[in-house]
Amino acid sequence: ETGVTQTPRHLVMGMTNKKSLKCEQHLGHNAMYWYKQSAKKPLELMFVYSLEERVENNSVPSRFSPECPNSSHLFLHLHTLQPEDSALYLCASSQDLIVGNQPQHFGDGTRLSIL
Amino acid sequence: DQQVKQNSPSLSVQEGRISILNCDYTNSMFDYFLWYKKYPAEGPTFLISISSIKDKNEDGRFTVFLNKSAKHLSLHIVPSQPGDSAVYFCAASEGGSNYKLTFGKGTLLTVNP
């Protein structure tokens, strides 16, 4: 139990569907992150929020839309995805944005498959 | 252009022996390094870290060594246990206010009983 919960764990959707991934952290952290892990590739940072403000949008296509309504919840809204978007999507949180003795805590991810 | 490289996709060792996982980096601005462990169907979990002002950090069976001149770090696990079987990711950051972690592709460690 990492304190970061992601739902759903698995999602299969068509290219025209709209769905959302949810992340909730119970650690009292102020920063939250979305990562994408494709097969045989390193984790790629997608979005970063600090105190509910987006501080990073790492050249992610607009078909991915993040939302952070409060410091405990993070969503990733998906719309008109492509087959190459099939991947493991990981949410993480950390106390603050400063890297140091504040490692990021990851959820177990959502395995997304686009048909 | 990968800034953090884990050149061994997999490693197999016998229980009780030492496991050595390697990581190389190219960005001389990296200031802080972390190792994460990932079991199947779970997210990565933080294992151990090291700041660039040190060359060694130890936590129980896990020791990370940093060679800044060679831009190389390694994770030693002694003694290795079957429960250590997982994918190990090396990650690096420029530190300070730069929160971005750059990850390697990971090394799958298998510890055989």
Write a brief structural summary:
With 115 residues, chain A is mostly beta strands.
Would you mind describing this structure in some detail?
The complex is a heterodimer of chains A (115) and B (113). In chain A, the strands form 2 sheets. In chain A, strands 2, 4, 5, 6, 9, 10 and 11 form a 7-stranded mixed beta sheet that branches. In chain A, strands 1-3-8-7 form a 4-stranded antiparallel beta sheet, with no helix packed on it. The relative contact order of chain A is 0.34. Chain A has strands at residues 4-7, 10-13, 18-25, 31-37, 44-50, 53-57, 64-70, 73-79, 87-94, 105-106, 110-114. Chain A is mainly beta and 115 residues long. Chain A contains no helices and 11 strands. By secondary structure, chain B is mainly beta. Helices cover 0% and strands 53% of the residues of chain B. Chain B contains no helices and 11 strands. Chain B has strands at 4-5, 10-14, 19-25, 32-38, 45-51, 56-59, 62-67, 72-77, 86-93, 102-103, 107-112. In chain B, strands 2, 4, 5, 9, 10 and 11 form a 6-stranded mixed beta sheet that branches. Chain B is globular, with a radius of gyration of 13 Å. The model of chain B has no long low-confidence stretch (mean pLDDT 94).
Provide key terms for this protein.
heterodimer, A: about 120 residues, mainly beta, 7-stranded mixed sheet, 4-stranded antiparallel sheet, B: mainly beta, 5-stranded antiparallel sheet, 11 strands, about 0% helix
- Unreliably modeled segments of chain A: none
Shape of chain A: globular
Approximately what portion of the residues of chain A adopt beta-strand conformation? over 45%
Order of helices and strands of chain A: EEEEEEEEEEE
Distance between the termini of chain B: 38 Å
> Any low-confidence stretches of chain B, pLDDT <50, length ≥5?
none
Strand-helix topology:
The complex is a heterodimer of chains A (115) and B (113).
Chain A: E1 4-7, E2 10-13, E3 18-25, E4 31-37, E5 44-50, E6 53-57, E7 64-70, E8 73-79, E9 87-94, E10 105-106, E11 110-114
Parallel strand pairs in A: 2-11
Antiparallel strand pairs in A: 1-3, 3-8, 4-5, 4-9, 5-6, 7-8, 9-10, 9-11
Chain B: E1 4-5, E2 10-14, E3 19-25, E4 32-38, E5 45-51, E6 56-59, E7 62-67, E8 72-77, E9 86-93, E10 102-103, E11 107-112
Parallel strand pairs in B: 2-11
Antiparallel strand pairs in B: 1-3, 3-8, 4-5, 4-9, 6-7, 7-8, 9-10, 9-11
